[in-house]
Amino acid sequence: MIQENKKLDQKRAPIHEALERFRQMRVVPFDVPGHKHGKGNPELTEFLGRRCVEVDVNSMKPLDNLCHPVSVIREAETLAADAFGSKNAFLMVGGTTSSVQSMVLSTCKRKDEIILPRNVHRSVINALVLCGAVPVYVNPEVDSRLGISLGMKREQVRKAIREHPGAVAVLVNNPTYYGICSDLRAIVDMAHEAGMLCLADEAHGTHFYFGDNLPVSAMAAGADMAAVSMHKSGGSLTQSSFLLTGPSIQAGYVRQIINLTQTTSGSYLLMSSLDISRRNLALRGKEIFKHVSDMAEYARGEINASGGYYAFGSELINNDSIFDFDKTKLSIHTLDIGLAGIEVYDILRDEYDIQIEFGDLGNILAYLSIGDRPQEVERLVSALSDIRRRHSTKATGLMAQEYIDPQVVATPQDAFYAEKVSLPLEDTLGRVCSEFVMCYPPGIPVIAPGERITKEILDYIRYAKSKGCSMTGPEDPDIMHLNVLK
Amino acid sequence: MEFWFSEFHTPDVKHSIRVKRHLFSVESDYQQIDIFETPEFGRMLVLDGNVMLTERDEFIYDEMITHVPMAVHPNARDVLVIGAGDGGVVKELTRYDKIERIDLVEMDPQVLKACREFLPANACRLDDKRVHIYFENALKFIRRCENEYDLIIVDSTDPFGPLEGLFTREFYGNCHAALKDDGIMVNQQGSPFYAHDAEAMQRSHMRIVHSFPISRVYQAHIPTYAAGYWLFGFASKKYHPIDDMNAEAWLALGLRTRYYTTRLHKGAFYLPAFLEDALREVE
C-alpha cells in the first residue's frame, strides 16, 4: 500500500474522469435511473441542467460500485486516503451522519461503553440508539461568558477512562461547531494506553487536513477513525462525506458496516463531487484555507473594533478545554448588545438578506469557506454594525446557554424503544425522556433518549422557543408534548 | 467595416452604439474597464460591458444627482461621494464655494486613472484641494463614520455587479449614521422600466424607506441608460425635497446648467402612475 501511495497523482480524479469517458461513449441506457440521462424528465433537466442529469447514472462496470469498489471508486478512495493521510478512506453518500454512525457501529456493540462529550451531534446518539451502546459522558467545560460548551479537559477524560476501563472507544469533536478543539493527541494516547480506540467527529474539520496553522487533524493525531464533512469546508455537494480509518481498523469490516445502512444506488453526482473536491484541496488547499483564515481574522478584527459584539478567536486558547481554536470559524457573541444570537440570525436574514449558519441563545456563527469573497464579508460586518446601532439595548433578561449536566437513567436504545407515553411539556418534570430535543442547527441535543427531564431543561426549551429557535427532535413538531417512559 | 458596441438591456433588448475606436481596455482587480470613441456620444466609459457615461449625456446624470440635493440643503459643507471615479459628480460639486470638503470613495483606482487620461472633461476637478480620494470598499469606509457629512452621493454601478453591497440595508443604515442630523443621501436608483431592473429598484427603495424618515424618488431622461429612463433616490433625515427647496438661494449662485432647473427640480418628483404604484408596494 505504501509503495503504491508513492506513485499517487493527486491531479487525478478517477470517478470524474470515468464519468467524462462515459459521457463521450453515448451509451444507450436500458437501466435505471428511469429519467434516462434526463430525457424522461425535461422539467428536471431544465432546472438542474443537462450536463448534471446526464451523469446521474447507476453503478456499472466502467463506473464501479460503491458497495464493493474495485476500480475507479477504489482509486478515488485510495487517492483520498493519501490526501488525508489515512490508511483507508471511504466515500460516503449519506451525509457525515452516515460517517459518524458507521464509525460508532464499527467499534461499539450492544452494552459496550463509549466515552464522549455530551455536546456531540445527534448522529452520535442516534448511532447509540441503533447499536445499544452505553454513553459515558464527559462534561465539557463551559465558557461562562459565551455560554458555549468547550472541549474535554485531559483530566476529565483520564477520569472517565479510569472509571470505565472496559469502554471500547473515546469520541472527540474536532472541532466543535464553534471551532474549539480538545487536546486530541493527548486523548488519543490516553485511549490507546487503555486499549480503547479514538474516534473523531470532524464534521467541522475537513480543512485541518490541508491548511497551514490550523489545529491538528484526527489522522495526524493518530486517531483510529474520523468522519469528515467534505461538503462543509471542503466544497463538495451536500450529503457527501468521507470516513477515514487508521492502521488499526479492518477496512473490510467497516465496509460491511457501511453497507448495512448505505444505499446500493450511490449517487455519482455526490461521488464525483467528492473526487473533484479532494483533488482541489490536495492541489490548492493551502492557499484556499489561508484565504479563508485571513478573511475570518479580518472580520473578527473589524467586528471587535466596531464594539458591542465579541467575535472570539485564538485568545481563548487555555491549553486544555480550549486546546486549540479553528480560526476559519467566525463565531460572534451577541448578548452584550442585548440580543440573543438567534435574534441577530433572524434579523440578518429578514432585513439584510444575509443567511448565516446558526444562532443560538448567545452567539451566531457565520460559516466562511472556499466560496467567500471579501465583499460579502464587508456586507456581513456592516450589517452587524447597523444592527447594533438600531437594536442595541441594555442586556437584561437574556439567558446564556448553559451546559445542562445530563442525568442518564437508561441507555439511548432502551429509552427509545421502551413503552412510552406522550405528556404535555409542563407535566414531564422528573420523567425520563424517550426522544431528542435540539435546536437545529447546531443539532446538539438539549435532552437525549434516556435522560431525566429537569426544570433547567424545561426552562431552556421554553426560552429557546420564545426566541424563535427552530427546535426539532420530538414526535410532536410544536414541542407542546414530549414522549416519556411509562 | 462596421464596429458596434452593444449592451443587453434585457436578454431580449439590445442597445447598440457605433464605435470609431476602442481607446482603452483593461481588466482591473474588480472589473473590465473599456473606453470607446463613438460618433454620436463622444467618448464612452464602459464597466463590465455596461455603459457608465458618455461625454454627450453625462451632464444629465451628474447635474441631477448633484444639484437636486444642493438646492435643498441650506448649508452642505461636508460631502461624501461614493463611486463616481469618473469625476463627473465631483466636477459639479466643486462649483459650490460653500462646500469645504469632498471625500471621494472609489473601489477601483484603475477607473480613476483611465478617466483622468481619456475623459479629462469629467475628471478635471479631481485635483481640487477640497477633494480627498480614498481607494477603499465603501461599505467599510462608511461604517467608521458617524455624524460627519451633510450630503452623501452614491454614484454606483448597477446592483448586480461588484458594488452590490451599495444597494443593501446595511449600507443605507450606515449612511444614515454617517450623516448629520439634517443630512441628505442621494443615490442612483436604476431604471424602473424593464422587469429585472424594476425589481432591483423596488428592493433598494424598500431598504432606503426602512432606513430614512423621508425617502422620495425622482427621475431623469438619460439616453444611454436602459430604456433611456433613470431614477434617483432622495433620502433625508429632515429636509423635504420639494418643500425645503430654496429656488431663490440656488438661483442666486448663478450656476449655469444644461439640464437642471429649479422648476424641473419639482417636476422630477412627479412620477408616472405605474411607478407610484411600484414604489407604494414596498413602502
Strand order of the largest sheet of chain B: 9-8-7-10-11-13-12
Count of all domains of chain B: 2
General shape of chain B: globular
**The CATH class of the largest domain in chain B:** Alpha Beta
**By CATH's scheme, which homologous superfamily of the largest domain in chain B applies?**
Vaccinia Virus protein VP39
- The count of β-strands of chain A is 20
The CATH superfamily of the domain at 286-391 in chain A is identified as: Aspartate Aminotransferase, domain 1
CATH class of the domain at 286-391 in chain A: Alpha Beta
N- to C-terminal separation of chain B? Answer: 51 Å
What coarse outline of chain A follows from CA principal-axis ratios? Answer: globular
Radius of gyration of chain B: 18 Å
CATH second-level architecture of the largest domain in chain B: 3-Layer(aba) Sandwich
Concise description?
Chain A contains 16 helices and 20 strands. Chain A is of the alpha+beta class and 486 residues long.
Q: What would your notes on this structure say?
A:
The complex is a heterodimer of chains A (486) and B (283). Chain A has 486 residues and is an alpha+beta fold. Chain A is built from 16 helices and 20 strands. In chain A, the strands form six sheets. Chain A has a seven-stranded mixed β-sheet, sandwiched between helices. In chain A, helix 6 packs across helix 11 (251-261). The longest helix of chain A has 39 residues, at 268-306. Helices cover 32% and strands 32% of the residues of chain B. Chain B has a seven-stranded mixed β-sheet, with helices on both faces. The longest helix of chain B has 17 residues, at 195-211. Classes of the chains: A alpha+beta (486), B alpha/beta (283). At the A-B interface, helix 14 of A face helix 5 and helix 6 of B.
Which structural traits does this protein have?
heterodimer, A: 486 residues, alpha+beta, Aspartate Aminotransferase, domain 1, Molybdopterin biosynthesis moea protein, domain 2, 7-stranded mixed sheet, 4-stranded antiparallel sheet, 16 helices, 20 strands, 15% strand, B: alpha/beta, Rossmann fold, 2 domains
